[in-house]
Amino acid sequence: ESVARICLGTLNLIVILASGISMRFASFLMWCIGSAWTYDSSGPIKPDKFNFGCLCPIQRKDLEAVDKSRMHKADIDKLEPNGVKLTNGTFLEADVLLLGTGSVSGMQ
Q1: Burial class of residue 48, CB neighbours in 10 A (0-12, 13-18, 19+)
Q2: Closest of 65, 102, 71 to residue 86, by C-alpha
Q3: For the CA atoms of 55, 60, 64, 69, what is the dihedral angle to 10 degrees?
Q4: Integer Cα distance of 37 and 79 in angstroms
Q5: Spatial contact of 97 and 86, defined as CB atoms under 8 Å apart
Q6: Which H or E run includes 86?
Q7: pLDDT at 88 over 80
Q8: Alpha helices by DSSP H, 34-103
Q9: Whole-number Å distance between alpha carbons of 55 and 96
Q10: Over the stretch 46-80, which tens digit does the pLDDT of each residue have?
Q11: Beta carbons within 10 angstroms of residue 34's beta carbon
C-alpha cells in the first residue's frame, strides 16, 4: 500500500511539473491517474472542464444571475419529510437535497 501511495505521489508531482508545459497534457495525465475526471456527451476527456472547486467566469456569471431571494446562507437545522429547516428559521420545501462540502467557490 505504501508503494502505491509513493507511486501516486510521484505521478502527481510529474503532473504539477507537466502543467508548466501544457495544462491540456497535465489534465490528461490527471485523468489517467484518477486525480481528476469529467465527462459529457462528446467524450470522457474535457481538460477545459476541470475546475477543482473554483468557478470559471461563465459559472460565476450564471450564479450571479440567480435570483437572490432563492439563495440562503444558513446551516441545516433539521431534515423534514418534505424539505429542510435552516438555522435561521426558514423552511425550504424540497424533493431532493444535494450537499456539497469542502469547496470554496470564491463567491461572497
Answers
A1: exposed
A2: 71
A3: -10
A4: 32
A5: no
A6: strand 83-86
A7: yes
A8: 57-64
A9: 23
A10: 555 555 555 567 777 887 888 888 888 888 899 99
A11: 9
29, amino acid identity = L
C-alpha cell at 72: 440562503
- For the entire predicted model, the pTM comes to 0.39
- Specify the pLDDT at position 91: 94
Q: Indicate whether 85 pLDDT > 80.
A: yes
Tally the residues of the chain.
Answer: 108
E strands within 18-99?
76-80, 83-86, 91-93
50: cell is 476541470
Q: Which amino acid is at 25?
A: F
